[in-house]
Design goal:
The structure is a single chain. By secondary structure, the chain is of the alpha/beta class. It folds into two domains: 54 residues, no CATH class; 352 residues, Alkaline Phosphatase, subunit A. The protein is built from 13 helices and 24 strands. A ten-stranded mixed β-sheet has the order 12-13-11-8-18-4-19-23-5-24, sandwiched between helices. The protein starts with a strand and ends with a helix. Bound molecules: zinc ion.
Length: 496
């Protein structure tokens, strides 16, 4: 038997805590040695084994969570086909770990009753707080309206900084789930707290969350009161009103809370490490792309005869279209620029800085899909991919950075044959919904269909959503999780 000395290092998880275990394995053929030496060698081997098998707590790591709102596999495939071709790979396609998340929603009255299609408020709450709740709720539980502790609050207890970046209003459902607690997502500003707004079928009643009723106030007020270190996105309209019980606007209170407030892309730079609030548009930030001349998906038009009987006449499909730059996007900071700024602020430009949590949302994959604007969703998904490039670059330099990419729920867009499979049958066959026929880089036409309803806005769908990770997620991210388990994954890597 040859002499052997082997060192191994493994990360184990005990009671939810990570430990680095360093072990030396020593195998000696003692018979080779004189008997006087055998005793010393036996003693040394025992000593090494004892010393080297101890477990020491590991340091906490960074977490960058990227959420594509409504980014199901249909949206990813549509964007991939357009941006890099059907055989190409987006950056998110190249992440080494691919998992799936089951989106969970419950009824607000009977919280044991499942609802099969989510909204962004309840699904972001699942990710931020680890609890499935009901549609429209932000950081509060179904039925009993209790505040749910979120990852930002838990991180702050350990002195870990957090940042929020979104192309929506920074007070919109997804970002607010990481710092606010309200019974409905409509409570975005002091005015909306007293002026009921319609959301889905219900009339929003924000009164339980008024400070005068013992609540935490509107979402924008809660952002100012929160421990968020950097918040970048849209939503200035929610900060210009006088705060409840104050003679100052929410924006003035933000400055008082030592936020540096910026409103233009040119003000974003990598200087400084203090608190930063960037509000670059009144509401949702304009998207990068739109359909040719602002076109959206259109209904195929049946001939008069076809309207008399479905087997008769003909149908006219919408003309194919290109995607083009959206003029309203001019001057907006890209999601990548906001990501870069947030990373710089959170680390204070110091590569050895403490760990942090950063949530980045590409919001309008969803919002453009509601409006049947396929080009808008594609441009927004490209923004997400560029932000991911930056996150991965950062993770290369800071190897303990867990990068997760996921979606909150599915969306309406479906990739369908751009003309029906039954084109040769002498009957006009067409979708009852809306169709965008988009020219791709491969010189082909891609059919994107929207048909969840006959109303002005498409609806979400209840499909599982992707959960992707860099290699740091190895051993942390199972092949299939429920959405609240994403919270556990983040927590186990971020917290000490
Ligand atoms: Zn939506």
């Amino acid at each position: 038997m040859p002499d052997l000395m082997q060192c191994s290092l493994k990360i184990t998880s005990i009671m939810g805590k990570s430990y680095i275990q360093i072990s030396f394995l020593i195998g000696l053929n003692l018979m080779k040695y004189p008997s006087g030496e055998r005793f010393k060698l036996t003693f040394l081997a025992a000593l090494f084994t004892a010393l080297c098998s101890i477990s020491v707590p590991s340091l906490a790591g960074n977490v960058i969570l990227i959420i594509g709102d409504g980014m199901d596999d249909h949206q990813i495939t549509i964007a991939r086909n357009y941006l890099v071709g059907s055989r190409g790979k987006l950056t998110l396609d190249q992440l080494p770990l691919r998992s799936t998340a089951q989106v969970l929603t419950v009824d607000d009255v009977s919280s044991d009753r499942p609802i099969y299609v989510a909204d962004s408020a309840n699904s972001a709450t699942s990710i931020a707080s680890g609890v499935a709740t009901s549609i429209g709720r932000v950081g509060t539980s179904a039925s009993d309206d209790k505040d749910l502790a979120n990852i930002v609050e838990l991180a702050q207890q350990q002195g870990i900084k957090s940042g929020i970046v979104s192309t929506a209003s920074i007070t919109d459902a997804t970002p607010s789930a990481f710092y606010a607690h309200v019974n409905t997502r409509d409570c975005e500003n002091p005015k909306m707290m007293v002026q009921a707004e319609t959301y889905y079928k219900t009339i929003a009643d924000c009164s339980p969350d008024l400070k005068s009723n013992g609540g935490l106030g509107s979402i924008s007020e809660q952002l100012v009161d929160s421990d968020i270190h950097v918040a970048l996105g849209g939503g200035m309209q929610h900060f210009v009103q006088v705060a409840e019980g104050s003679d100052q606007t929410v924006l003035q209170l933000a400055e008082k809370a030592e936020y540096q407030v910026v409103t233009r892309a040119t003000e974003l730079n990598n200087n400084g490490s203090g608190r930063l609030l960037g509000l670059f548009s009144p509401g949702t930030m304009p998207v990068k792309w739109r359909g040719e001349d602002g076109r959206v998906a259109e209904k195929p038009i049946p001939s008069l005869l076809n309207r008399l009987h479905w087997t008769l006449g003909s149908v006219t499909y919408p003309e194919p279209m290109d995607c083009e730059d959206n003029p309203e996007y001019a001057g907006m900071p890209s999601l990548a620029l906001m990501t870069e700024t947030a990373l710089s602020r959170l680390t204070g430009g110091d590569s050895g800085a403490d760990s942090f949590f950063l949530m980045i949302e590409s919001a309008s994959i969803d919002k453009q899909s509601h409006l049947r604007k396929a080009c808008g969703s594609i441009g927004e998904l490209q923004q997400l991919d560029e932000a991911l490039d930056l996150a991965l670059e950062f993770a290369k330099l800071h190897p303990d950075t867990l990068v997760l990419v996921t979606a909150d729920h599915g969306q309406a867009a479906q990739l369908v044959p751009e003309r029906t499979l039954f084109i040769d049958i002498p009957v006009p066959v067409y979708s009852p919904g809306y169709l965008a026929r988009i020219n791709t880089v491969e010189g082909e036409i891609m059919g994107v269909n929207y048909a969840t309803n006959n109303f002005l806005s498409e609806e979400h769908t209840g499909v599982n959503v992707p959960l992707l990770s860099n290699a740091v997620g190895q051993g942390l991210v199972p092949a299939m999780v429920t959405q609240p388990e994403i919270f556990d994954i983040i927590k186990s890597h971020l917290l000490k």
